[in-house]
Structure formats: structure tokens, C-alpha cells
UniProtKB/TrEMBL annotation, chains A, B, C, D:
InterPro entries: EgtC-like, Gamma-glu_amide_hydrolase, GATase_2_dom, Ntn_hydrolases_N. SUPFAM superfamilies: N-terminal nucleophile aminohydrolases (Ntn hydrolases). The keyword Ribosomal protein does not apply. The keyword Zinc does not apply. Residues 2-271 form the Glutamine amidotransferase type-2 domain. It comes from the Bacteria. This is Class II glutamine amidotransferase. Keywords: Glutamine amidotransferase.
Amino acid sequence: MCRWLAYSGSPIMLEELLYKPAHSLIDQSLHARMGAETTNGDGFGIGWYPDDHGGPDRVVEPAVFRGTGPAWSDQNLRELARCVRSPLFVAHIRASTGTAVQQTNCHPFRYERWLWLHNGSIRDYPKLKRDLVLAVDASLYPYITGSTDSELMFFLALTFGLRDDVPGAVERMAGFVETTAARHGVADPLQMTVAVSEGKRLWAFRYSSGHASRSLFFSTSVHALRALHPENPALRKASEETRIIVSEPLGDLPGAWNPVPESCYAVVQEGHDAIRRFSPRGGAE
Amino acid sequence: MCRWLAYSGSPIMLEELLYKPAHSLIDQSLHARMGAETTNGDGFGIGWYPDDHGGPDRVVEPAVFRGTGPAWSDQNLRELARCVRSPLFVAHIRASTGTAVQQTNCHPFRYERWLWLHNGSIRDYPKLKRDLVLAVDASLYPYITGSTDSELMFFLALTFGLRDDVPGAVERMAGFVETTAARHGVADPLQMTVAVSEGKRLWAFRYSSGHASRSLFFSTSVHALRALHPENPALRKASEETRIIVSEPLGDLPGAWNPVPESCYAVVQEGHDAIRRFSPRGGAE
Amino acid sequence: MCRWLAYSGSPIMLEELLYKPAHSLIDQSLHARMGAETTNGDGFGIGWYPDDHGGPDRVVEPAVFRGTGPAWSDQNLRELARCVRSPLFVAHIRASTGTAVQQTNCHPFRYERWLWLHNGSIRDYPKLKRDLVLAVDASLYPYITGSTDSELMFFLALTFGLRDDVPGAVERMAGFVETTAARHGVADPLQMTVAVSEGKRLWAFRYSSGHASRSLFFSTSVHALRALHPENPALRKASEETRIIVSEPLGDLPGAWNPVPESCYAVVQEGHDAIRRFSPRGGAE
Amino acid sequence: MCRWLAYSGSPIMLEELLYKPAHSLIDQSLHARMGAETTNGDGFGIGWYPDDHGGPDRVVEPAVFRGTGPAWSDQNLRELARCVRSPLFVAHIRASTGTAVQQTNCHPFRYERWLWLHNGSIRDYPKLKRDLVLAVDASLYPYITGSTDSELMFFLALTFGLRDDVPGAVERMAGFVETTAARHGVADPLQMTVAVSEGKRLWAFRYSSGHASRSLFFSTSVHALRALHPENPALRKASEETRIIVSEPLGDLPGAWNPVPESCYAVVQEGHDAIRRFSPRGGAE
């Protein structure tokens, strides 16, 4: 089990969300409340798009900072959170489900301007891994640097067209994992909440083969956020479009957080955000 | 808060105590039950005296292995625990109370053939540190390599005669810390369970200025230990003298573990072990 | 021996100096040319003042990023260098002269808005350390977090008035080190090149008790820098005030680099820069 | 480029070879003399078979200790070298040729009771990797934990029968790499010195597709070794069978070290050692 957070909206300093809230993500690295594990100390990562990334058409590769120790004691993370401002960033704290604790296994994973982070796992991953790896496009294969199921899911989604159709590619990835697992006799193989972004939009998926998915929440509105953090000047100035998606709520304010429904995904984008059904598709056809 | 363990008896592989018991020390690094913090992920260390350390008069410097990541995911610790056999060893998992997570702050601390480990803290340590450091003997001062209160307590005890009179030196150290704290207006300054060894005997202290000390237990007898781990061949062959001291019990067997009483210390040695009163003394006179 | 670099001028991305030049600082971590050691793999650090740090009177604490592995393989350093832009920054690669490889021993050291980095050493430091530590002001003492001579020199300089008179305080620090060394019978105790900044000005010192100081160079003018890196758009736009100070030259362009003379210091500031004599003073009177 | 060492003979403390010789392996981590890179600071590892591993038929899994920092500053390595005694051990210092610096990429690699270490590389590895990975037996595939060419060569050799016929399997591995490379238009793909052991025998291979292999030496006889280290009591008592194989000689004694000839391998075993020709074979048929 891991915990993650994704932010899209008016540019803010990362520390506003990573450190300052009552039940912040860094606090969750020591004391998560929801999910199988209460400690998420097997590495962490942040990924952010720069504040000044030019016009809407400029392709910008996001920056990534990842560490293998626990987030709660990392001095560099604390420094960066204090001086990096971004309109779109993600953060992840890891609890390994078996693969090594090393930087190449820390989220977010990046490919070109895309960022990916995941909470969950593929059941019996060692058994399924080879067949899943073989399905990754040969031109993408050399960019896999770690050994996790999470990164492999990203490269399968890229193989299945993530850059053109995010929800479709993730649905095909999920379908392919389920088909492969079925062939190996593995039941209920996929458990996932996933965040994806290319710097402008943000997608957040909540799905599991057994329909008992890990928790995922989004902030209802910037008004509720402001009420949640009345002392926070950054949020006072945040635009109406500002949105946060989290594995578990920051703070306990009633009404501030809504669950993403089971087997659904959310799109945070200019204009109206949306929540839609998620249905795995036969990924290989 | 930290957790620790000390073993003296028939030589066993370290993994017998570090990994195999139901509520092992490594398990406690993720899920401690007693004490302020449930996670002890800010480094760890083991120290051991070699199995074949010659006759009773040979002075042997123990080996120390320390890491800055969490014990639960350390592959090297797992390897060593599997291949190191020792008749007297200690292990420590750290939860920092403020000082940096770095190897020089990990327990056990070593000086010549002495090992020291500590759970607890000196209250308002930054305020008191300078005065405490000044009291360390100038010839010992250069051997302080870290920045913790724990290591400083060790060097104060060495200054106050640890090598000649262990309980007396620890009592003088405690007295000196309390006197210094009083001068700075700091109440209830000392909280400690401490283990000390020179390779033959093992001392374990439980004390706090406010008489609300952290938990400390010793195994009642090797018979109880065998009952605790009936499947363990190492313990089946363990001598009557075998003894384990721990911050919190391994496993839940009734009768296997006895608390060290408040403000007392235990001596594990050839012949009869002993439990005696601990009384801080004016350390500086 | 270590290597370092300090930049003051038009805001540029850190990678322009850390990675892009022919004989860049990161390259020097593997293959330094000047000085006793060719490898500087015992940690590294960067410190920078933000690009948008408001008006001239605003006090800004710089950001610091430090790692304990070699700079040449650090992925996070590479990421930050690519996305951090600053008008005044420093970078350091460390070759330990005996103290532990740990983050608290990596340069730059920071106190409030001051940054300090050092190449060199205090001879017989373990012998002199206690007396030097005792001279640090009691109110500053708790902010010492590592165990190096370099950080201690910083806190001595702070004690001797760094915040009011930089050259004077560094001269008093040097004098105090030499006086203390003389009392212990240690000859030629001090070897240093030092960079100091508060975010607006930059001081660089070159001194050694034996007048055989480690190398130190400054860029003659932005014109020479442009000639050095004609392909570099950042430098093409750099102001006339832009200045770089380095342990050893980046690249081999004739005329681009001038040595700071023996027993001198340079001040990089608004208006005319200056080079002046450095003379240790009795620091304790 | 990396450097490695393998020892077989009378049990000795690891430090006898790792630290004590004039041009020891740890010294080579900072200052190697032969080969493309003089610094080997991208991690290290040791693997050893226990001193008391029972009768000749007992299968014993060796212990492995690996670190990601430079060997020269690793305190734990120093401790272990001082207290681990072994009749057969290997050590490796790494200079990455592109893959990540992480524990799973450090040598030696282990599978059951086998140890493997490698100096060299597969040219254009990212281009060839997928085809090479596909050839690994599906039952072995899940045991690959890192991302190096070195580990993949080990698993290919295991696939091609290493456990039954060491030289044959390594020759088939080499042949398969060359065939695969040829298919991709990659010339001179393989560069390797390799050590393999199962705890009793030790094989050392020197080969490269272009017949310009990295250096490899073996100690001529224990007499020469004793002459090399007259002060070393361990070697004075070493048996006639004692043998050391190294990437580059320890010390400069004339006559102590002999090169393994180009395209050959050595077998160190009970009775007569042997040097034989190495000829890659079509690995896939």
C-alpha cells in the first residue's frame, strides 16, 4: 500500500500540501489511517511541472525528485517543498509490496512529459511479470528502469496508446493484466488507484478487479479547501479551478472531500471536471 | 522512542531473535506496541562479540553494523543475521527524537570493547548539550562522532568511570544530567533504558527522572524461552545461562517475560544474575 | 580536498555551470586536475538564493540540497540543476579528510540567510576540536549539526561577527585557529579556500598558514565567459556583473580565469568587485 | 569498468586482501591503474562461503553484502572485513556503464549457491536487452532483480546450463550475446572478465568479442604470495592450494602475478588448477 496526492490549480508552494495540513502526506508516511499498512517508509517521490512553463503548446518535461528513505526524515524534500512552486504536481509515499527499495522503483514514473503514480498491486506479480513485460512495445522497453508492477503498468498503458487516449489506454492496460492473470489462474489480479498527467490535465483512476478498490478522494471545491485551511494565504488566492486528489483526506473537515466512486475515473481539466465509469477492455486486440 | 534487544548465552545465529520470533525486533521496527511511537524507521544497528573470541582474558573489540534506512527493508541486515553467530549481541531500531538520521547516530555506540545502546532521551537536549559535552574528558572527546544525546550519555559514563564500575558510572552520568538540567530549569530531564556490555557481562538499566520509565523486560529462564519457541533448535540446545533483555516482549507467551522494575538495573553474568536499585549520584564531584 | 564553485550574476539554470562546461564541477567529482585528490566522491551540496526573492531588503533563507553519494551519479542533482534558476548559487563536491560521509557534513552549511563552503582542512583537527568548539557562542552552538572542521570554522566566524563584518570575522576565525594550534604545538594548521554569501554579495577567501594555499580562480569578465561558452544562450544574455569563482577552471580557455592571489579575498558585489589582502587576527581578544 | 577479486584457499579474514595489501581492492576503488576508468565508486559487494560449511556434500548458500556508495568510505564493509573469515570469497567494486547505482545492480549476483561477478559490458545494451531477456528461462526470470547486463549474463548462463557445465554454459551465453548482437548490427558486443563459484571450485573467464579483453591475473603460487606479504601471518599459514584472481595486481612484486591469457578461463579446484581456451558457442541451438 502507498499513499499519494495530486494537485492542479493556482501555483502553490509544495509544502502547503505536503507538510502544512493537519493530516498531511508526510504525516501519512508515518501514520496512514486507511488501508492495509500504516507505515509508508519505503521511499517517496514528487513530480512537478514548472510554474513558468510558457504557452499552452510548449511541451515541458516535468522535474522528478525521488528518495529511498522515509519521507518523514528527508531534509532535501523539506527544502524543495519550501522553494518549489507549481500549478500541477504529484507526490507519493511508498510501502513496498515486495520489490526492492531503490530510486528506480519510486513514483512518480516519467516518460517524456508524462507522470504516473500508483497505489495498489498486481497479485502474483512475479508469476505474471514476464508475460506483461513481453507486451511492452520494443521501442519503449529500454525506458523501463525499475522492477515494480507500477512502472510496468505505466509502460503497458503507453504501449496501448496513453499519449492519445488516456482513459482508453488505462482501460486496455487493466484488461490486459486481467486477461494475462486469468491465463495463469490468478484471480482478482488488479488493485489500483492511479494518477496520470501531461502537465495540463490530470486523470485519477480508482479500480480493482474485485471491486474493492483502495480509497481515493477529491476536493469538492476551492471554497471547501479554503474553509479547510482558513489560515492558508495560498488557498485564499487559489482559483476556482483548483483541485486536489488524495489517497486519504488531509484533515477532517466535513464536506471537503468526496470519494471517487468504485470503478470510476476523474478528469481535472480546464472547464468542467468530470467523473466517468472505468471498464477494462481486452487490451491486446 | 526506540526499541532494542540484548542477548547473552549459548551462541546463536542473530536471525533467531531478530527475524524469527512472532513479534520480532524487525517486526517492531514497523509495528511496535509499547511506547510513544509505533514506527522505528530512523536507522538501526547491531553489535556482536565474535563466537570464537578466545580465552576469558582476551580483549576483543566487537563488530558493529549500522544502517540509516529502516531495518525492515535492509537486505544486508538480513544476510548478516543469517550468517553471524554470537554468544553476546545487541540490536537497536531507532526513532529519532530530533537529531539527524545518519550512521554516526545509530546505536550501538562502541568504544574499545564496550557497546552501549539507549532508548529514551534527554529533554531539551539542544539547551543542555553544550554543558554536557564540556564535561566529557578531553581524551575521550575526539571519539564522539555523532550528535545524539545517547552517544553523549555513553561518553559521560565513560568519563565517570564506566570501565571500572558500570553501575556507578551510569548513576553518576544520570546524576550529572539531572544536575545540569536543574541548573537550566529543565524538569524531568532523563528518560532511559540502556544496555551496556564489554563482551562478558551485560547490564540493563531502566530509569527516568519522573519515575515513569520506558518498558524493559528480561526473559525469565531458558525453559520459558524454549516454550516460547518450541520449533527453535538453537534454543533447545541453549544453556541455562541464556538470557534476553528487550524493550518489549517477543511473542505473547505468558510467563516468558518479566519487567525490569522501575529505577533498577539487571546484570547478566556468569553465575547468578542480579537486579538492583538504580540511584543517580552527583556525577561531577 | 574538495572542489567548489560560486556564481553571482544574471539568473541562470544551475546546469549551465554544473554539467555543461567541458571540465564542469560534476566532471571534477570524478577527475579533478588540481590538488591532492583527483576524486571528490564523499558527498556534495548546492545552495541557492531564489530567483524571485523580492526587493533588495527582503531577507531570504537560501535553499540547500545535499547528498552523501558521489555527485556524478546523483539523479536528483541532475533534475534540480535542470529546473532551478538562480542569480546567486554555490556548489561543492567533497573529498573527506577523515570525518564521516553524512549529510550534516556536506557543504554548503547554512545559518539564517548565510551560506558557507570550504576546501581545505584544519591540521590535527581531532586534537584541536574541543578547544575550538568551546569558543563557539553558546547561543550558536545548538545549530552545529555535523562534525567537520569546515562547519566549525563557519560557526567560529559567526561567533566573531560574520554577520556584521565578513572579512574581519573570517580573519579573526583564522587567527583563533592558528593561536589554538600554536598552543597545541600544531604547525601550519589552516588550509582554506572559503566562499560566503548572504544572498547579495559573495566573498571568496584564499589562505593557508603556510602560504601554499589551494587553488582559487575567478572569471575575468562576462566577455571572457561568453567566449568560453559561445554556444550558451544564458551567458549571451548575462549582465556585465556576472562572476564565477571556482577551485579550478571550467574549460581551458586562455584568459578566462584569473587566480585569486595567495592570502587574499575577493568580494563580488554591486558596482566594482574588489580583491584585498587577508591577514589573520588574534580572534579571541 | 569495474575491478574484482576472488580468493580460494585457507580461510582468511577478508581484510587481509580487501584492505591490507599495498594496492588493495579498496585502494583501487579510488585509484585503479588499469582500464578505462580510474574511479570505481558506483557501489560494491562481497560474497563469501562460510568458514564452517560442513562436509563436502552440504549445499550452502553464500552470504552477500552490497552497498551503493563507494567502497572506500563504507564503515560496514570495514567492520565485516575485520570479522568475516572465509575459505572462498569474492569482492567487486563498480563503475557503472550506464545502469542505475542501486543495490540490485551491485555484484556479486547470487542464485542458490552460485555467485557471479563481472567486469566489462555488452555494447548497445539498451538495444539488445529485450531480446536477451526473452531468452532467459521463464522459471529463472522472476529471480532477476536488477537492470544490469552483468546480471542478465548470469541468468543467461544459468539458462544455458551453468549448474551442470560451467564453461559450456558461459560459452553458450557468450555465443548467444554475439549472435543476438550480430542480428542487430552491433559489432564487438561482449567485453568480460567473469568469476563464478558454487563454493568449492572457482572459475575465472577472460574474453571479449574483439580479442582485446580487460586485464585478469592469478597469483602464481602461495610461495609468491608469501613473498608478496611477508608480514602477513594468514598467508604464512596458507595452504599450497591458495589462489587469488584479480582484475589488476595487488602490489608490485615481480613474479607474483600471471595474466590469464586472452580468450581463456582458469579453474581453481582441489588438485591441479587448469587454464583452458574459451570459445563462444551458438547458444540458442
